[in-house]
Write a structure and sequence with these properties.
The protein is built from five helices and six strands. It is of the alpha/beta class. It has a domain at 72-150: Ribosomal Protein L15, Chain: K, domain 2.
Length: 151
């Protein structure tokens, strides 16, 4: 199928059914909702978080003082790709990359953050890294291959 062979669907031209507008809606007095009950009211129905009369998730989770929330146990790394350092004209070919330099160049916003260097592109600059927390396996190989150092 080619672009010039596409046709607009016929059902797209129909307007949406207007509910609750008495005789003009075509469903008369009760607007298609039925006569009585919770779902016939304007505020009717169940909220999105309703779990069918079972105990809600917020009540099932433990709330004791020694319960550790998993998201506090995960170390969150700020990821920096080598190709960004390669493409950046502000970084010289044999520069030393530190957290302070990354902050000054606005790659990270705080020096306290954990930083991880990844490799996703060809890399030719011989950069040396100091004080960076983590490197991927391929990033280490590419840095050492180009003559860079990791301290």
């Amino acid at each position: 199928m080619l672009v010039h062979e596409l046709k607009r669907s016929t059902w797209l031209n129909k307007s949406a059914k207007r509910r609750g507008r008495w005789d003009s809606s075509g469903s008369w007095n009760y607007s298609g909702r039925g006569q009585k009950g919770q779902n016939s009211r304007s505020w009717g129905g169940m909220p999105a978080w309703f779990e069918g009369w079972q105990t809600p998730l917020t009540q099932r989770l433990p709330k004791l003082k020694w319960f550790k929330r998993y998201f506090k146990l995960i170390e969150d790394y700020q990821v920096i790709n080598l190709w960004r350092l390669e493409a950046d004209e502000r970084i010289e070919k044999s520069a030393t990359i530190t957290k302070q330099l990354l902050k000054d160049l606005r790659y990270i916003s705080k020096i306290d953050w954990l930083v991880k260097v990844l490799w996703t592109w060809d890399f030719s600059k011989s950069l040396s890294f100091e004080g960076i927390d983590c490197f991927s396996k391929t990033a280490k190989e590419k840095i050492e291959k180009t003559g860079g150092k990791i301290k």
